[in-house]
Amino acid sequence: MWIPGAPPYTAERPLRVAVIGAGPAGIYAAEALTRQDDIPVAVDLLDRLPTPFGLVRHGIAPDHAKMRALRETMHRTLDDPSVRFVGNVEVGVDVTLPQLRACADAVIYTYGASGDRRLDIPGESLAGSLAATDVVAWYCGHPDADRKTVEEALARARSVVVVGVGNVALDVARVLARAPSELEPTEMPQHVLAALDAAPVEDVIVLGRRGPAQASFTTQELRELDSLAQATVLVDPADLVTESSSPGAPADRAVARNLAVLRGWVDHVAQPGAVRLMLRFHRRPVRLLGEDRVTGIEVERTVVDAAGHATGTGELSVLPADLVVRSVGYRGHPLPGLEVDPRSGTVSNVAGRVLRDGALSRGEYVAGWIKRGPTGVVGTNKHDARETVEAVLADAVAGVLDPEAPLGDIISVLRAQGAEPVLLVNWQAIDAAEVALGATRGRARTTLHDREALLAAARASAAAGP
Ligand code: NAP
User: Fold this and answer.
1) C-alpha torsion 282→284→290→292, nearest 10
2) Any alpha helices (H) in 44-131, and if so which ranges?
């Protein structure tokens, strides 16, 4: 019988934590759990995909090789003997939440926010209107990407408007404006390289509904737009004049840096043959135009008040577009058995402890975007996950979790139900297959984008096993 105050867990009966989502938040949660010595732990790191790393693999733009290299550091956590990677497991399909909870003392939801936010304007569903989440998934080789829709839209994309001025909007604009030679060394699947090479892109407009002082992109990502091999970055000085004369702008140093970068571009002249990559501000999307596919976007000029709110001026204009990419943020979705707040798209929680019907739910925790919303850089998840893990460990020590509960083994449960969990050894085989595929074209790696191809590579390790 466990006595409160005594060390409740042992090497033989460690604190077993199931982490749902092997992206940055999940891996950082596993890291925080394994990097403490107070309580022996065993972590099952589950993912819906057969591959780990979440948005580091399927979100960070493939031309950001240094940021994607974070995977190498993250891999140390996957290699930790007290961590089991269990991929290719969809909660609600392969296993129910109650079954999963019966295999762990605590569950941490870290499955992120993979849905797209809507503009809620007429014409949004026309062909040629894509969510940035779909474009990003496609160029990163996500197995669920809708190849047909994205490639069909891209094949006609002479004039592109990207709505939103966050870092995702800059990623999409930059990838579309890059020369094929700049993308060739990346990990992009071959069909993505071919489709981008064939796309007739001439103009890319990145559209902010407020001013440059309210843009959420970061200076480094902004500055990078001016380093593309075959694109000229353009800014209308009128967009900046309005801004610099608006009251109180810009006190923030980051904003001042962004404005300095933008002002440095006002004299740019489009080079012949180069993609014109233009940043426009103070324009609110009103509707997407077109009969059966997008031909343009109607926008209304806005002014920004002292509180930072945009108000329409009634002055309308049309930007021609064959492709509109809506990059206005991500949204979290519920899991079967776990609700999200419909307004915020996050799971209700107090510093990482999940609330159900307003009350703390024993043994359930949350970290990352599904906890706080889709904000911050990858590293932000480290602090976030630590806060959650502190709550798990505090509850474990306080006896809130039942240290004597008999636990099932998630891998046995999954196999008994006909699921095919992808374990570390299988992921290593996928990893090796991607490196080998890349080598055939002199690249460091080519992402395997097809779920069956990923599983075939995973199975190859099982076939070659001891
Ligand atoms: P974000 O930074 O929140 O940007 C969303 C943009 O959409 C904002 O400009 C927002 O404008 C605009 N928007 C929202 N609703 C709109 C509407 N109805 N009409 C027009 N515009 C609208 O989100 P994100 O770009 O998706 O990025 C998500 C997170 O990932 C961010 O924290 C980002 O920094 C991070 N990230 C980082 C990197 C990197 O470090 N390189 C790369 C990608 C993503 P308002 O401000 O006016 O609402």
Assistant:
1) 130
2) 54-58, 65-68, 70-79, 97-101
330 CB near ligand 1 (under 6 Å): yes
| CA of residue 327 to ligand 1 center, whole Å | 7
Taking residue 373's Cβ as centre, other Cβ atoms within 10 Å add up to 17
What is the dihedral angle through the alpha carbons of 200, 203, 209, 214, rounded to the nearest 10 degrees? 110
Residue 63 Cβ < 6 Å to ligand 1: no
> Do 306 and 330 meet the contact criterion of CB atoms below 8 Å apart?
no
Query: 257: which 2 tokens?
Result: 């840096």
Ligand 1 probe mutation, 121, 328, 378, most atoms within 8 A of CB:
328
Q: CA 61, CA 141: separation in Å to the nearest integer?
A: 11
> The tokens of 451 are what?
């779920």
The Cβ of residue 76 has, within 10 Å, a number of other Cβ atoms equal to: 12
Closest by Cα among 185, 137, 145, 136 to 438: 185
Q: What is the full per-residue pLDDT of the chain (466 aa) written as tens digits?
A: 445 555 589 999 999 999 999 999 999 999 999 999 999 999 999 999 999 999 999 999 999 999 999 999 999 999 999 999 999 999 999 999 999 999 999 999 999 999 999 999 999 999 999 999 999 999 999 999 999 999 999 999 999 999 999 999 999 999 999 999 999 999 999 999 999 999 999 999 999 999 999 999 999 999 999 999 999 999 999 998 765 555 555 568 899 999 999 999 999 999 999 999 999 999 999 999 999 999 999 999 999 988 889 999 999 999 999 999 999 999 999 999 999 999 999 999 999 999 999 999 999 999 999 999 999 999 999 999 999 999 999 999 999 998 888 899 999 999 999 999 999 999 999 999 999 999 999 999 999 999 999 999 999 876 655 4
Q: Is the CB of 171 under 6 A from ligand 1?
A: yes
| Residues 229, 130: Cα–Cα separation, whole Å | 26
CA of 215 to the centre of ligand 1 (A): 8
- Token pair for 193: 């390289």
Element (H, E) at 362: strand 359-366
Ligand 1: residue whose CA is nearest its atom 21: 164
